[in-house]
């Protein structure tokens, strides 16, 4: 891990950009971080880190100032400033084509869109976690939040250092990921926008049902993809406070 910039924000949070190989990311730590500082990994949508920076940074700074958590995010493969990925570009084009034509999104399209991304992103998250936990100010335990929800499911299933996860529904879910969900046992909170125009609500509900955790809570709110109520930020923070403190 190589830190490329350091900025002390006006609320005292230290924001550091880093690279891990070719992977860019950002780490936020509280004003007086000292190990063991719990860590939240914030998963991004496939829109590019610079595109969603404002809302991700706001979440990270809230966790740092109100709860003393560190937070980190990394750019997804094929997104943002990372090299283009031809297979991913083709899968997105196929999805746009069938949706524009009003045709059903087939399982084949969903698998091509999501499964290769999960296969690449999860090992990168695990390598990032190795590097973050090697820092003297980060001690864990570790939580994960965000989307793509299939990445969160896979990561929670295979990474024993994840102690709790707050998953955001809103992306397509391959059948194989629904099967993997049965292996997830950590405490979960799942956030679902009931009227999400790009999400198959029933698929999200089926995934929630499949998740193997004994403690899992569904937060379903009316409204579209971008209409998540502000109070859900505090609900997520309190969920992590219960399991990471």
**Whole-angstrom Rg:** 17 Å
Instruction: Tell me the CATH architecture.
Output: 3-Layer(aba) Sandwich
Mean pLDDT: 92
For the termini, the CA-CA separation is 26 Å
Count of helical stretches: 7
Structure characterization notes:
The chain has a nine-stranded mixed sheet with strand order 1-2-3-5-4-6-7-8-9, sandwiched between helices. 41% of the residues lie in helices and 22% in strands. Helix 2 crosses helix 3 (107-133) and helix 3 (107-133) crosses helix 4 (149-158). It has helices at residues 49-67, 86-100, 107-133, 149-158, 175-180, 201-210, 231-244, and strands spanning 2-8, 14-20, 23-29, 39-43, 70-74, 142-146, 162-168, 188-193, 216-221. Strand 8, helix 6 (201-210) and strand 9 form a beta-alpha-beta unit. It is globular and about 55 Å long. The longest helix is centred in the middle third of the chain and has 27 residues, at 107-133. It is α/β, with parallel strands linked by helices and 245 residues long.
